[in-house]
C-alpha cells in the first residue's frame, strides 16, 4: 500500500505535522507540503465551451502523486474551523481533474482509501466536526474509502505532545497502517 | 447599515452571484469579487518571535472594506462541500488581522452582523450544512452576529432561477435588508 | 401519492403542527399524533436467540400506516436539539420492523419519499441542523428519498405565524406537494 | 468529584455499557439504567396557565440523582443515529425541571461537567457526529461543561472489545477520571 501524505499546514513543525509524523514513524511514505507548491485557486470553467484551460502551476505534479498512491492522508490544521486554504485550493482543483482526459479521476479515486489528521486549538474534537463531515462528502463524491480521522488539540508548537489521547490514537494508527502494508 | 458583499465565486455570473444580486436588488451596497484580488494563503507566524510579516497583496484592502461596513454577506458557491478556496484564503488571513495593531479586529467584528448565501449542485440543503456550521463557529469566534443563511440549488449557469424556494428566500431577505436600513 | 403526517409534538396546536397544517392545506392526507398513541421505547433484542418479542402497544398500527403511504412527513418540534422523544421512540422501533417477517421493511421504505418539518425556539436554523443530518442518515439507511426539510422559528403558541420565511416555505411546499399528486 | 452514569441502552451487557464500565473501572460512581425506570415522554405545558402538571413516574428520582452529582456520563448506544429513546425521553423532561421551583436547574447544571460515551454499528465515528453535536447544544444550553466524548464501534454483544481505539480511549478516560478525583 503506497501512502501519500498531503500536508496542508502553513508553518514548519506545526502540531499537525508532528502528529502525522508520529502516525507514520517507520512507515515508508511520500510526503508533500502544499505550502511549498504553487497551486492557484480554481477558475470554474466547467460550463465554458472549451472547458478548463491549463494552469501553469504545481497542481498537476501533486495530483499525479495522488494518482500514483493508494492511501492518502490529508493532514491539515484546523484553520477557522475548516481545512487550510492551501488544502482547499488543492481540493477545489479536483473539479478540473474530473474533466481531465489524462485520468479517469473518479475511477482512480474510487480505488483509494483516505485518512484525515487534524489539530486545532479551540475544542477541536467538537468544533472540528464540520471539517470531518466535509471530508465525508468530498471522499464519498469521488468514491474514496474514508478509513477514519484523528483529531488532536494544540495551539503553540509542541502542544500536541501533551494531548495523550491524540498521541495514543497516532500510535494505534501507526500499528494499523503497518498491518495494512 | 452599510452592506458589504464578498463574492467567493471563481466565475462570472455564477448562480451564487445571481442569487445574491437578487437579494440585494435596490439596496445600496459595496461589492468585492475575491477572484479579482490577489490574496495569498496565510503563513501562520502566530508563534514567531516577530509575529506576522506584512504580505504585499490585496488582503489589507479587502479587510479594510470589512472594517468599514456593518453587515457582511459571505456569498460563496459550495465547492467540494465547503466555501471556495478564494474565500477560505481570505478568512484564514483573519489570524493575521487578529494580531494587527492597526485594528481592534475582534472588537470591530463583534459589532457587525453577517449572512451567508451559497449555492451548490449536489443536494446543497443537506450537504452544504457543514459549511453553514463552519460559519457558525467562525462568526462566533469573532463575535459577529450570524443573522442567517440562504442555500440555493444550481449547477449550470442560470439554474438558480429554477429554484423557486431560493428565489423566494432571496426576496424575503431583500425585504428584510430594506427594513434594516 | 398517499401522504402520511406523523406529528411528534407533545402539545395541542403547537407551532410545528400549525406549520405542517399550512403546508398541507387542501391536500388529502392521513395524520397521526404520536402523543395519542402508546409506543414503548425499543427493547433491543436483535441478538437474542428468539429475536424481538411482540409488544402490546400501538406501534404496529402506526408502522402499518407508514407501510400504506408513499410520502411520509416527519413533523416534530425541536426538543433539546433533536426530534421529540415521542418520535424517537417510534423510530427506534424500526429495528424491530427490520426483522419483522410480515414486512419487507427496507424494501418498502426504499420506495417511499420523506420530508421533515420542524420548529424550535433557539436559533433553529442553526441548532436544528444535527436533527436534519440525523434524518439524512436515518432515511438513507432504509433507502427513503429525503425530499427536503422546512425549519421554522417559534416558542410560544402562534409564534410561527410571525416567521415569514417559514410561512413562505410552507406555501411553496404546499404547491409542490400538489404538483406531485 | 461525584460521578453519575446514565445508561441509555435498552439491553443487558450491550457494547456501550461494557465500554463505559471499562472507563469507570476502579472508580466509585453511581449508575442508573434508564430502561429500569419509567420515564414518560414530556407533555409540553410550558405555555399552559398552570405550567407543568406533576407526573407520577421515576423522572424525579433520576433528576435528583443528577442534581446530587458533579460529573454526568451520558452513556447511550447510537440508535438510528441519535441517543436512545430512553435517554431522549429523559432529556426532554428537563424542560419541566427548568421550571421546577424545587431546583435552580440551570444554575446547578452550570456547575457540572459531562461526558458522552456511545457506540454504534454503522460508521459511528462519522454517523454518530450529529449526536455529539446535539449534546454540545444541550449541554451548552444548561451551561454544563462538555469534557468530551468517546465513540466505539460494535454491533453484536462483545464487539466493542475488538475496537482497539475505543478500548484505548476508555483507558485514558479512566486515568483522567482518576486524576480528577
Automatic annotation (TrEMBL), chains A, B, C, D:
Query: Origin, by domain of life?
Result: Bacteria
Alphabetical list of InterPro entries matching this protein: Flavoprotein-like_sf, FMN_Rdtase-like_dom, ISF_SsuE-like
Coiled coil among keywords:
no
The record lists the membrane-crossing segments as none
Query: What Pfam families does the entry give?
Result: FMN_red
KW Flavoprotein (keyword) present:
yes
Q: Which organism is it from?
A: Brevibacillus reuszeri
Q: Which UniProt keywords apply?
A: Flavoprotein, FMN
Q: What is this protein called?
A: NAD(P)H-dependent oxidoreductase
Positions of the NADPH-dependent FMN reductase-like domain? 1-122
